[in-house]
Amino acid sequence: MVTGGDVAGRATSSSGAKIRVDVDLVLVPVSVTDPMNRLVTGLERENFQLYDNNIPQTIKTFSTEDAPLSIGIVFDLSGSMQSKFVRARKALSEFLRTCNPKDEFFVIGFNDRPAVLVDYTSEVDDVEARMVMLKPENRTALIDAMYLGVNKLRDAKYQRKALLVISDGGDNRSRYTEGELTRVVRESEVQIYGIGIFDAYAPTEEEQNGPILLKEVTESTGGRLFKVLDVQDLSDIAERISEELRNEYVLGYTPTDRRRNGVYRKVRVRLAPPPGLPMMDAHYREGYYAPSQ
Questions:
Q1: Any idea where the domains of the chain sit in the sequence?
Q2: Which of 11, 98, 221, 257 gets the highest tally of CB atoms within 10 A of its CB?
Q3: Which SS3 state, helix, strand or coil, does residue 154 take?
Q4: Which residues, 6+ apart, have CB-to-CB distance to 137 below 8 Å?
Q5: Are 149 and 75 in contact (CB under 8 A)?
Q6: How many angstroms separate the CA atoms of 32 and 251, rounded?
Q7: pTM of this prediction?
Q8: Which of 244, 208, 201 is nearest to 226 (CA)?
Q9: Pairing state between β 104-110 and 55-57
Q10: CA pair distance 247, 159, nearest whole angstrom
């Protein structure tokens, strides 16, 4: 049996929503939820307002198509996952089986260090066969694993890229820092979702900081962190994330500031829901880097 400790040694070698920046067009994927945290579909172009560095923009393109995604899975194989591993593995299967059949995905497992367990594939069976061979043990290099996942998505086939992180705690082993992770995430424009299987009582500072780290990273990319209060809810949450990725609004605009200066620009989306509907929340990436040449 391959254990969690053997992840790095036995791994195969390997070679979102994303704000896409062309010469003339910026694309911003947006998901919308109501006060009950339910996904909102059916909105139209006139229900959105876009700002680039606080300057209003004209929405030139608007779509809701279910385009294929390149998805990286970052799966916690540290010792604290032992009692949750079977259900977490099942949740991963549910997530993959509700994806677009054309999606491609890879899996990174991590404990003391991260490694690619399954390289880019569209076959869910490939993932399930590999995961059943694993056993959680050792410590948690969460930041290193996310860093590896974001970098690997640079080789993705599709324009839209997402990272799903399944973990139960904070980092206590990584070489990279939170600041280094934040920088690579901002530059990559990958959308990140998290499934946090956190213990009610976190005995260490690292475990206490785990939810904070995942929440900050996911929300900055337009994704979200889902906290698991009951491991029996894991599959439902995984399906919910898949549904959100399938039902995003994609807003396109040509920035009024056409300078190609490589500067980071903040994006803001405001909602103008139809009369009679409650207030809603828009989830989107915080910004993008302008072209540099």
A1: 4-16+67-246, 20-65+249-289
A2: 221
A3: helix
A4: 3, 4, 5, 77, 78, 79, 82, 111
A5: no
A6: 13
A7: 0.87
A8: 244
A9: unpaired
A10: 16
